């Protein structure tokens, strides 16, 4: 797969004290290219004051969420984060590269079932002692 930027629509922008959470809509023709595993990141691209800026941000949504979200930490003097905090809004488009990164853990379905079924029992033992 060749990596190239794609125009994605910003669906949401939520601001926290020191961060933004930006949600993107991924159109059906790009869903396969933008399928991801937890631990991957997106590279965003924007023209800020005539400068081509690219920054990579961790994906902070689950693979089956309706939006693909990234967290942007607001840094003092940060060119991209400062621009995003002041100008990025729902409805705009942003150039986004498909997910990258190999710092992932592939969960096996059998292991996932085992973990989720054992946690409530462990928690109930702690509260009942």
What's the N-to-C terminus distance?
54 Å
Task: Report the CATH C-level class.
Answer: Mainly Beta
Cα Rg: 18 Å
Count of all domains? 1
CATH superfamily: Translation factors
Assembly state of the chains shown: single chain
Largest sheet: 6 strands, antiparallel
- Give the uncertain stretches in residue-range form: 113-129
DSSP helix count? 2
Helix-strand topology string: EEEEEHEH
In round numbers, the mean pLDDT is 84
Kindly report the spatial arrangement of strands forming the biggest sheet: 4-3-6-1-2-5
CATH architecture: Beta Barrel
Number of β-strand runs: 6
Shape: globular
- Roughly what fraction of the amino acids lie in strands? 35-45%
User: What share of residues is helical?
Assistant: 10-25%
Any key phrases for this structure?
6 strands; single chain; disordered C terminus; alpha+beta; 129 residues; Elongation Factor Tu (Ef-tu), domain 3
Structure explained in plain terms:
This protein has one domain: Translation factors (Elongation Factor Tu (Ef-tu), domain 3), CATH 2.40.30.10. Strands 4-3-6-1-2-5 form a 6-stranded antiparallel β-sheet, with helices on one face. The protein has 129 residues and is α+β, with helices and mostly antiparallel strands. The protein contains 2 helices and 6 strands. The C terminus is likely disordered. The N and C termini lie far apart (54 Å).
What order do the helices and strands come in, and which of them pair?
Elements: E1 6-15, E2 19-25, E3 41-48, E4 51-58, E5 68-73, H1 79-87, E6 93-100, H2 109-128
Antiparallel strand pairs: 1-2, 1-6, 2-5, 3-4, 3-6
């Amino acid at each position: 797969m060749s990596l190239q930027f794609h125009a994605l629509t910003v669906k949401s922008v939520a601001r926290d004290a020191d961060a933004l959470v930006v949600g993107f809509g991924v159109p059906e023709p790009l869903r396969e290219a933008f399928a991801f595993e937890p631990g991957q990141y997106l590279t965003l691209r924007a023209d800020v004051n005539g400068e081509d800026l690219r920054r990579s941000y961790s994906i902070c949504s689950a693979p089956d969420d309706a939006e693909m979200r990234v967290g942007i930490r607001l840094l003092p003097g940060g060119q991209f984060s400062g621009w995003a905090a002041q100008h990025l809004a729902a409805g705009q488009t942003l150039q986004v590269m498909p997910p990258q990164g190999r710092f992932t853990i592939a969960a096996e379905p059998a292991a996932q079932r085992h973990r989720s079924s054992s946690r409530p029992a462990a928690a109930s033992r702690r509260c009942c002692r």
